Amino acid sequence: MKSALTQQVLTTDSNGLEHVAPTQFAAIDLGSNSFHLAVAEFDGHTLRVISRLKEKVQLAAGLDKDGQLSAEAIERGLNCLKLFSDRIQDIDKDYITIVGTYTLRKAQNASTFVKQAEAILNHPIDILPGREEARLIYDGVSHNHPDLKRALVIDIGGGSTEIILGENFTSEILDSLEVGCVTTKKCFPDNRITEEYFNQAVINTSIAVSEVKKFYKNASWDHCLGSSGSIESIYNVLENLNLTQGFITLEHLKYLKQKLIEIGDFEQVNFSVLTESRKSTFACGVAILYALFETLNIDKMHVANASLREGILLELAEELKGNDIRHQTATSLMNRFNIDQEHAKQVQQSAQCIFDQTADLWGIYDPIYKNYLDWACQLHEIGLSISFSKLRMHSAYIVQYGDMPGFSQQTKDSLAAIISNQKKKLHIDQLDNKYDPKQALLSVVQILRLAIIFNVKRDSHNIQDLEFKAGDNHQLLIRIPKSWADDQQLIIAELQRESAYLDYHGIKLDIEIVHSQ
């Protein structure tokens, strides 16, 4: 059976044969150095990029030592997005993904920028965890190089560098290091390029890489690919100088190091193939790549023709076909952490019953809230792998800080807050300052807590005969047949305790035992 999204793009030709009308997708990458927009067409089989836009913003340059993004950097970013908004205004919102990377992960006032940016683009922005960014980069590279077997992929961004080892289309080891071509400029005071400053930039990168190098040095790969604009610009300069035979080597980088030291100043970097926007970060990119070659024993690197944007577009195409990777991630985690899947399924069924009767009045009919509820039901006991004591804290921690392919950091934060409030004392303040509205998250929490209570005995029974009548301000009346209540005294006692927990926060939960006529 086709998904609803797929049905939207299916048409029938004059011979009555079904074919797919091309659908446009858009991916916007709010990088630390540049903002990128890629637009692609998907015909049901092939994804084809039809346009690209790129603007140098250097968002990371506006990040001060306290993690505050400057007003000037925010303005540069917003001005760029006003241009992008014109290009995507005719594309269906379901087919657009906008992501933030390193700088928006680090900025303490990221929400100031994000709220204004979302208003301009009329679309939500997902801030990617570092390893999620790495996964998407590998997806983009591997699908654009389908003949790859085992590959090391490196992407040097403005604020972070991603390193991924994978085989065919599957990433195996993913890391995101806090070193980038914009943030490394601090190693070059007054924009001067000396041997001392260059070596310091190399050392800084090597220190960052040293924390993860054992995972890569002990592995082998058939190809090494560089996927970023920084690496592409290095290759272009080498090619223009007739120094490369289709790849980059450490000897090439040693040559560029000496050439840059001779030039001596960022402002004087004038290789003809470099764009103006790339000149100010070129030396930093060379120093970072130099350190990576030395530390990871890379012999040669080819330039990839895809990166993060292509990974995002591929994922959008998969979602069009009804394949949401987040559901696959939840299932994978259940298997990995040996979660009692039968119990999780029973909790999910109970939650569905309650959700169906309360969602409209509580305003949580948006699919994301049903997703939150499903994932919380599936993963609320993931912390049992650590200890039953403080289960909800362990479960929330794993969700918030674990690798969860497909999940943005905002989604993980909201899901962790929901799971953290799965039972006993309610900490409503944990729902503050999340991307999703507090009141909607609280409604999801209420349903999860009740679903868990109804399955406290971990036996199979349904609640189809119970009525859940939602009211304003999270009020809820549960009507329970007396015969059901007589058989489930433990659950009735737990519901009464739950009523007391909610009452502390001014939330009314009433239990009405209904006698049969």
TrEMBL record:
Keyword Kinase annotated: no
Keywords: Hydrolase
Domain Ppx/GppA phosphatase N-terminal: 39-317
Classification via InterPro entries: ATPase_NBD, GppA/Ppx_hydrolase, Ppx_GppA_C, Ppx_GppA_N, PyroPPase_GppA_Ppx
Record domain Ppx/GppA phosphatase C-terminal: where: 325-499
Keyword Disulfide bond appears in the UniProt entry: no
Top-rank taxon: Bacteria
Name the UniProt record assigns to this protein: Exopolyphosphatase
Biological source species: Kangiella japonica
